[in-house]
């Protein structure tokens, strides 16, 4: 069965004939076929009815018409004249229209050297795959086609008629009609990276930057053609395109692309509605980066991005509600701020139904009453809610476990939940060590469809060096080792912005700031509120980020000092284990942990590294 984008239930069909053709394509093509239905292509957003891609066949563009013979007054090779309720209408000949869309497709692909035929081949520089175009006439039989004389203006070989796409038609015969639409056929075998490049060029919204610490998308006019083009995988793309109306929950492990799906989805919805879209998360650093990302993609005036307490403050200001008096600590102030907003909504001072859609990233850090408040802000006419959740990354609760159902807070997502298990961010080695370290908090926990499961991360199979735990003689030696690690990586060609130092406490961060500044290493520190807001506007700098603020971010090299001081005496072991698990899974390729004194965590990490090595060697 072919893979359809979006999935069949979420496809937008302009005509009944498009729906019937989608059914045939899905049923009569094998599972290595990819089919896109009414999905905009390229920066110009042209809309072919169908694009079909097969690794050994190539790419095909199909235009679908539900015309009847009697409604077509005249047709030549470029246009047709139709009888309509509003009179005679001139439209393009379907084959001319399909060929125009195909040229848009091939024009995007053939500029990429990775998709060109080799220099030593007869057609060097030409597209490495066959391509074709055709029309599907869903209400015209082959006999009617011939009797109407349309074969004079439409190549019969490039047309599928109504009686050639019935449910009873043999699958091989149906496929052969598709591939007869190709002018030239030659052997090809697209690799998975080449298929990703095809998808990345046709649908630039799927591209992911390779810049660490930033999970943004390439701009639609991006000319850079990197050797490695990272795009959403097929499951992520299908999920992002297929999320329909109503409430949705995605349970995804760290590195599974949840934030990327949220960014795509928020922009997609914003283009289709006339009310603002709200994106919320707990983490200030993450909200700043999301805001920058969405603004770069043209959604800044339609998508509101804020961390939850910042949004609560904005609601107070916008509707002239008195804020709590500060001075008793941030935790108390934030709790009173939320309680004040809940009362104001209940009393009608702050209106409900302000947003067409609300998307919540890192929902595992939200309290139940926050969800209940946010749901009231949805306009019931649109009522689109997306919650992204990973209970293993719940780091702001002091290790507390809370059992609650989504329906109890107004989230109606039964039957509309998705689980993402594959971790694409980390190498197999980094993920294996992080899992071994945090095996107790990652213990699988089942839940009913309306509850919160514990999802175990699975590796996507990318490999790299094993994480290292470097033991230092004393605190000064640990700082010196940190500086040397960063300098060595930069000397070997890594940009400063590819590196991050993740800390546990503000006291520790002050010492790290001093040490890195003395070493003249360019630094962007997230110690202050202003620093977190500007973290990714600082150019080529090492990022100094707290473990708690690192959620949603990623870096090629992550260095975590101070393991010997963990778990923190004032924190529970479970809380610090979650923090360290989150910090470890920020590493794309290299993870180095530093310790200058023995501790429970340093021993657990050493054991985890040894266990991961034994397990992976045994699997080799």
Automatic annotation (TrEMBL):
* BP-aspect Gene Ontology terms: recombinational repair
Under the cellular component aspect of Gene Ontology, which terms does the record hold? cytosol; DNA helicase complex
List keywords of the entry alphabetically. Answer: ATP-binding, Helicase, Hydrolase, Nucleotide-binding
- NERD domain segment(s): 13-128
| A Pfam family per the record | NERD
InterPro entries documented for this protein: DNA_helicase_UvrD-like_C (IPR014017), DNA_helicase_UvrD/REP (IPR000212), NERD (IPR011528), P-loop_NTPase (IPR027417)
Q: Which GO terms describe its molecular function?
A: 3'-5' DNA helicase activity; ATP binding; DNA binding; hydrolase activity
Q: What is this protein called?
A: DNA helicase II
Source species, please?
Stenotrophomonas koreensis
């Amino acid at each position: 069965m072919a893979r359809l984008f979006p999935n069949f239930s979420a496809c937008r069909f302009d005509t009944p004939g498009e729906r019937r053709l989608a059914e045939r394509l899905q049923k009569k093509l094998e599972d290595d076929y990819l089919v896109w239905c009414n999905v905009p292509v390229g920066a110009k957003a042209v809309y072919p009815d169908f694009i079909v891609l097969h690794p050994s066949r190539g790419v095909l563009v199909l235009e679908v018409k539900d015309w009847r013979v009697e409604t077509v007054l005249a047709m030549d090779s470029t246009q047709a004249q139709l009888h309509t309720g509003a009179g005679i209408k001139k439209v393009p000949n379907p084959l001319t229209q399909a060929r125009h869309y195909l040229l848009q497709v091939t024009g995007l692909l053939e500029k990429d050297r990775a998709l060109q035929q080799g220099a030593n081949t007869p057609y060097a520089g030409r597209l490495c795959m066959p391509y074709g175009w055709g029309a599907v006439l869903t209400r015209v039989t082959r006999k009617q086609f011939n009797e109407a004389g349309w074969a004079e203006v439409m190549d019969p070989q490039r047309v599928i008629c109504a009686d050639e796409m019935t449910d009873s038609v043999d699958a091989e015969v149906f496929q052969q009609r598709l591939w007869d639409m190709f002018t030239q056929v030659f052997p090809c075998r697209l690799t998975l990276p080449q298929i990703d490049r095809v998808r990345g060029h046709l649908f630039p919204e799927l591209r992911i930057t390779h810049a660490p610490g930033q999970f943004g998308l390439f701009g639609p006019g991006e000319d850079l053609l990197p050797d490695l083009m990272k795009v959403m995988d097929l499951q992520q793309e299908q999920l992002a395109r297929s999320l329909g109306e109503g409430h949705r929950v995605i349970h995804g492990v760290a590195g599974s692309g949840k934030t990327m799906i949220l960014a795509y989805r928020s922009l997609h919805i914003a283009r289709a509605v006339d009310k603002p879209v709200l994106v919320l998360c707990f983490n200030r650093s993450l909200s700043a980066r999301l805001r920058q990302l969405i603004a770069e993609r043209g959604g800044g005036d339609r998508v509101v991005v804020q961390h939850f307490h910042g949004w609560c403050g904005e609601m107070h200001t916008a509707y002239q509600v008195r804020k709590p008096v500060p001075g008793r600590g941030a935790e108390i102030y934030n709790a009173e701020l939320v309680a004040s907003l809940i009362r104001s909504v209940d009393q009608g001072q702050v209106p409900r139904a302000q947003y067409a859609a609300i998307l919540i990233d890192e929902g595992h850090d939200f309290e139940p009453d926050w969800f209940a408040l946010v749901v009231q802000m949805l306009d019931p006419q649109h009522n689109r809610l997306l919650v992204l959740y990973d209970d293993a990354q719940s780091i702001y609760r002091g290790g507390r476990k809370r059992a609650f159902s989504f329906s109890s807070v107004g989230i109606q997502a039964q039957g509309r939940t998705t689980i993402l298990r594959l971790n694409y961010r980390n190498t197999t080695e980094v993920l294996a060590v992080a899992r071994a370290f945090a095996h107790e908090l990652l213990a699988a926990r089942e839940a009913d469809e309306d509850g919160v499961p514990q999802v175990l991360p699975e590796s996507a199979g990318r490999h790299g060096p094993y994480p290292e735990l470097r033991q230092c003689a004393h605190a000064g030696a640990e700082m010196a080792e940190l500086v040397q690690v960063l300098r060595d990586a930069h000397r070997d060609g890594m940009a400063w912005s590819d590196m991050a130092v993740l800390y546990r406490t503000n006291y520790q961060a002050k010492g790290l700031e001093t040490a890195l500044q003395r070493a003249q290493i360019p630094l962007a520190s997230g110690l202050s509120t202003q620093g977190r807001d500007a973290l990714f506007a600082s150019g080529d700098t090492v990022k100094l980020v707290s473990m708690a603020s690192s959620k949603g971010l990623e870096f090629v090299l992550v260095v975590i000092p101070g393991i010997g001081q963990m778990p923190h005496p004032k924190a529970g072991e479970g809380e610090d284990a979650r923090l360290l698990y989150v910090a470890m899974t920020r590493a794309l390729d290299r993870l180095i942990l530093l310790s200058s004194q023995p501790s429970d965590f340093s021993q657990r990490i050493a054991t985890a590294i040894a266990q991961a090595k034994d397990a992976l060697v045994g699997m080799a």
